[in-house]
Amino acid sequence: MRRVVVTGMGGVTALGNDWQSIRGQFAAGRTSVRRMEAWERFPGVNTRLGAPVEGFSVEDRYPRKALRTMGKVAKFGLFAAERALGDAGLIGEKIVTSGRLGVAFGSSFGSPDAVLGFFELRNAGASKNLNATSYIRMMSHTALVNIGLFFGITGRLIPTSSACTSARQAIGFAYEAIRLNRADVMVAGGAEELDITDAAVFDTLFATSTRNDRPETSPRPFDRDRDGLVIGEGAAALVLEEREHACARGAHILAELVGFATNSDGNHVTQPRAETMQLALQLALDDAELPPEAIGFVNGHGTATEWGDIAESVATAAVLGPRVPIHSLKGHFGHSLGACGAIEAWLGIEMMREGLFWPTANLEQIDERCAALDYVTGTARALQIDFLMSNNFAFGGINTSLIFRRI
Predict the structure, then answer these.
(1) Which of 301, 327, 332, 370 is catalytic?
(2) How many Cβ atoms sit within 10 Å of the Cβ of residue 197?
(3) What does pTM read for this prediction?
(4) From the CA atom positions of the chain, what is the Rg in Å?
(5) Which regions of the chain carry the CATH code 3.40.47.10?
(6) Residue 287 and residue 71: Cα distance in Å, rounded?
(7) For a tag site, which of 86, 180, 208, 297 has the least CB within 10 Å?
(8) Phi first, then psi: what are they for 82, rounded to 5°?
(9) Sign of the CA dihedral 151, 157, 163, 169?
(10) Which of 141, 245, 327, 335 is catalytic?
């Protein structure tokens, strides 16, 4: 099998669009969760908390013709992909349009605003908001398609829309495409835009935080006093490249992707199953040909939902044992759904390269029902590790795990 390395990374998040900015926010103890005043007009939704990206605009960055088919989720995705390709030194290179570079990109949904024209048509029989680009902006693979069109990519496009594992599966499937010689380079990641409909989905399940007057204290992954998740937004992309191809062009290698696994619970749409989560983690170790003790840190999913946190911790402890350090970044960014797997992989690699892992925000009293693990709390932890495991789990019982090696 061919080896796969990471040669570029980039993204847009609610705490900044580059590692130094985000790291500065971590160091200052800030999170991105805000009270969403615009949601006051939705009395049927209990939560008022979100983690928005503020001040983001690409109207002067990209041509108007290109932007016509993009809602916010596609703009996020294109921005992240451009940043990652630029970081890899591939903007304008022949490989981009050669057919040997592809894209794997995911999101839970497209842009919700684009649905309104179809809704008006269905209800009123006509719609003044419906146009030729409405469906392109609405479809779940809108970010993927717009990235491919913008850069003139003629290689394979792999859409992934699996809720919270969308970006993680995109990275994993891109890795497999390179290993199997279907591509030499893949841009892989995910994007999501924050909308009241996202919050309402989880609100109907009583899974959202309602600490509406104390946004800085929520969400609280793995914490005894958690009361639910907070929805966020953003995007991130990794450039994955066949190792010899990267070396031949003198690329700066940031990490090596050595293991990937995904499976499903086959049990329940919304209730996770620790046994199959555990199997996914073990399968990733098997793919990487590593023993459990090789994993130096776990970038966990940790959404601050009761059964999700418990099941994930039980699965992690069963495979890796109680010694392994673990954190969740969702205390800082909220749950960015289809984007979280890419954002967390990007920032996890940055932390591994720096040797400093930031704690789970708001984790103060570990829930005694969570398994015994080395939860990183309070302050950043200095660690020199060789292998990072990064995990995500989604509705439908979809489980994913990636393993990165420090270079």
Answers:
(1) 301
(2) 14
(3) 0.97
(4) 20
(5) 4-248, 261-406
(6) 37
(7) 180
(8) -65, -40
(9) negative
(10) 335
Fold exhibited by the domain 261-406:
Peroxisomal Thiolase; Chain A, domain 1 (3.40.47)
- Annotated active-site residue 340? The verdict is no
Known active-site residue 247: no
Residue-wise pLDDT tens digits, 103-151: 999 999 999 999 999 999 999 999 988 999 999 999 999 999 999 999 9
Sheet architecture: strand order including 231-232:
34-35, 49-51, 231-232
Which one, of 284, 22, 20, lies nearest residue 171 by Cα? Answer: 284
Structure token pair of residue 268: 């329940």
Compute the distance between CA of residue 137 and CA of residue 140 in angstroms, rounded to an integer.
8
Nearest to 77 by CA among 137, 131, 7: 137
Residue type, 345: A
- Count other C-beta atoms under 10 Å from residue 309's C-beta: 26
- Pick one of 3.20.20.10, 1.20.120.520, 3.20.20.70, 3.40.47.10 as the CATH number of 4-248: 3.40.47.10
From the list 164, 245, 332, 340, the catalytic residue is 164
Tokens of 21: 């900015």
Residue keyed to tokens 């989880």: 202
Q: Would you state the pLDDT for residue 113?
A: 93
Please enumerate in sequence order all residues whose Cβ is within 8 A of that of 18, keeping only pairs 6 or more positions apart, or say none: none
CA atoms within 13 A on the CB side of 401: 29
**Distance separating alpha carbons of residues 341 and 170, to the nearest angstrom:** 9
CA angle 102, 104, 106 (to 5 degrees): 155
Is the preceding peptide bond at 325 cis, omega within 30 degrees of 0? Answer: no
Q: Which tokens belong to 141?
A: 């693979």
pLDDT at position 1, please? Answer: 82
Tell me what percent of the chain is helix, strand and coil, each rounded to the nearest 5: 40, 20, 40
Question: With a cut of 50, which residues of the chain have pLDDT below it?
Answer: none
